[in-house]
């Protein structure tokens, strides 16, 4: 870490000073995504800063093309002529443990890829499923996982239409890894994207954060913390459909804050759109059990993964309508307006803390919770 | 194994007897794809009989829908109205070693998915790439693999438009695993498929078999066999385009004989179309180095994986034109007509051997070469 991440200034002068520091940092960040490492570390899979370094240092330059370079969760394109527009996405799931409170790797693999299509404004249609199985894996467990996938797909009205299975020797994988790619029908004209944020937009969050990450963490560590925390894994296509019905293309960006959490996801948007995002800490919903577990474990809920929440960036004048529409939906009852978009300092996210201070909210650095999804 | 696989009858009476046995076996096979195993074994990843048992016992019933049930290499569907038809496929690559004579996991991951689209008569357009990386994997190796993928994609005119990277702890994977899913533009009317074989069709094979499997085997085992065998990994879209230009929808089925080899692939077709396939052993091209290595290793070239060959089933009257068209293409110079389709015994593949006998050619049983692709 070569930049400050926490400040608690109390006066206007101090705030100015912070803003100057921020501006300096921002300049530095522009050229920051390069890869110093010689070997893969767990933090390259965190979804945070190291992941970005890996993507920008290896994948993006090799594969560069206009569709990939947008770096949204799905690529959208026209196949022939101008319509239909399609969305295409992929995600691999390596979560450990495979079964956890509120779900399993199968539900996650279906919901995650549905949500990646939804964030592009697409209607999810078809999924592929690629399995890597470890020799010795119990077929009864595989049946449970596949059953979960089938059930989740049915609930969401999508179909698994093509698949593949590979097996590797004992000790060369960890039970089962699943890749799901997805194809969806994109909206003919509306195209939300992380480069579409504008000053004056509001930031909505569909409910309390950190449930998935903490549920996994507690399942994994068998800590003696007694909680009822369950993964929030859920498909968000009907929530977004209800939202779109209410405010249409006033929705500028949708993103599910999975790996890296709300902090990382908003940083990606701010960088991509060259804007600043200011959050109000007190407005961000967090279940008390999650907050408690985070305090004990030394984690920030803003960097913890969610699997059934949506961040929505909507134009300021439509924010209240969007809020009302989301709150009417079972998966959005606790939706809150948590912040707003401003023109500068470009590429930065900051948090007005409960105690009246301000701190820069950076992407996740390191990986406190490897294999969260 | 509960059925005979080899016969060397010399008289008409003996052949009749064999045909009766075949008929009995065929009846038994109809109900044979069930899963007795409690744990995953390497042979569930062979692409052969155990893989089919796993697919029919776990995946197919859970996910059943008309697109999946066709069990072709890609699913094809219309997104809106009647056009365009799309093809969608997925494949995961776990080959070991990652680098081998003639290619690496990156080239394989691009070529394999292109070829799965091509077998559906589709023009490959877009790929996704999902990586599972093991902690400690050298980034220099990752750069080489990603460079190979980018080069292969460019050569074939396809684009990697979306991706994902996960990292697992040391000892929980084996260097790198790659999933590529692919989207292609299917032909509006022509739809080759493994259920479309008809009596009188001819079986064409685009060149010598077994190169990929043997190259991997020799690279892996570091046997003291000195050969020049290289993987045949190649994208076959231009070969198929040339073939289609010559004979159009007289092409009833295309399939690249990867895992399980020519024997398994043709068995799948025979079962799906309720026909028999008769092969002439002497007509099947095999490089002498591959034949020699197979003899030493006790392997049958007909069950060894290929990554740049195509099996083409074409109506009898167009077979010579198809042969000529394929031979004109650099990747089809050694194309041969290796057999024909007949109406019975349904679901069976047999081989007229060089010594004048006949043997039932079954799917691959067990897995002599795990992690071949």
From TrEMBL, chains A, B:
Coiled-coil spans in chain: none
Annotated GO biological process: protein maturation
InterPro entries, alphabetized: HypE, PurM-like_C_dom, PurM-like_C_sf, PurM-like_N, PurM-like_N_sf
Domain of life: Bacteria
Ranges where the PurM-like N-terminal domain occurs: 72-185
Domain PurM-like C-terminal stretches: 198-347
One Pfam family it belongs to: AIRS
Signal sequence interval, chain numbering: none
UniProt-listed NCBIfam families: hypE
Stated family: Belongs to the HypE family.
Name assigned to this protein: Hydrogenase expression/formation protein HypE
Gene giving rise to this polypeptide: hypE
């Amino acid at each position: 870490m070569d930049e400050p991440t926490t400040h608690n200034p109390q006066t206007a002068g101090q705030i100015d000073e912070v803003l100057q520091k921020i501006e300096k940092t921002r300049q530095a960040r522009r050229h920051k995504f390069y890869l110093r490492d010689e070997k893969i570390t767990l933090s390259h899979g965190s979804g945070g800063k190291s992941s970005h370094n890996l993507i920008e240092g290896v994948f993006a330059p090799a594969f560069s093309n206009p569709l990939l370079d947008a770096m949204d969760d799905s690529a959208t394109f026209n196949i022939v002529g101008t319509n239909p527009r399609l969305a295409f996405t992929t995600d691999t799931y390596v979560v450990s443990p495979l079964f956890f409170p509120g779900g399993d790797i199968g539900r996650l693999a279906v919901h995650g890829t549905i949500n990646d299509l939804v964030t592009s404004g697409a209607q999810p249609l078809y999924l592929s499923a690629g399995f890597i199985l470890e020799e010795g894996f119990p077929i009864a467990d595989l049946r449970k996982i596949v059953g979960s996938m089938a059930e989740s797909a049915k609930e969401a009205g999508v179909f698994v239409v093509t698949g593949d299975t590979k097996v590797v020797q004992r000790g060369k994988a960890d039970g089962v890894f699943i890749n799901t790619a997805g194809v969806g029908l994109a909206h003919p004209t509306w195209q939300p994207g992380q480069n579409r944020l504008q000053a004056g937009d509001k930031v909505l969050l569909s409910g309390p954060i950190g449930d998935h990450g903490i549920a996994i963490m507690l399942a994994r560590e068998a800590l003696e913390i007694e909680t009822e925390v369950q993964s929030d894994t859920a498909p968000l296509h009907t929530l977004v459909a209800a939202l779109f019905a209410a405010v249409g293309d006033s929705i500028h960006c949708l993103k599910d804050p999975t790996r890296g959490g709300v902090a990382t996801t908003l940083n990606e948007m701010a960088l991509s759109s060259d804007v600043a995002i200011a959050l109000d800490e007190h407005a961000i919903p967090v279940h008390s059990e999650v907050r408690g577990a985070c305090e004990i474990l030394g984690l920030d809920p803003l960097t913890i993964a969610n699997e059934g929440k949506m961040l929505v960036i909507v134009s300021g004048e439509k924010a209240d309508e969007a809020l009302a529409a989301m709150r009417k939906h079972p998966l959005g009852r606790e939706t809150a307006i948590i912040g707003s978009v401003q023109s500068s300092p470009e590429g930065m996210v900051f948090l007005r803390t409960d105690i009246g201070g301000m701190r820069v909210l950076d992407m996740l650095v390191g990986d406190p919770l490897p294999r969260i999804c």
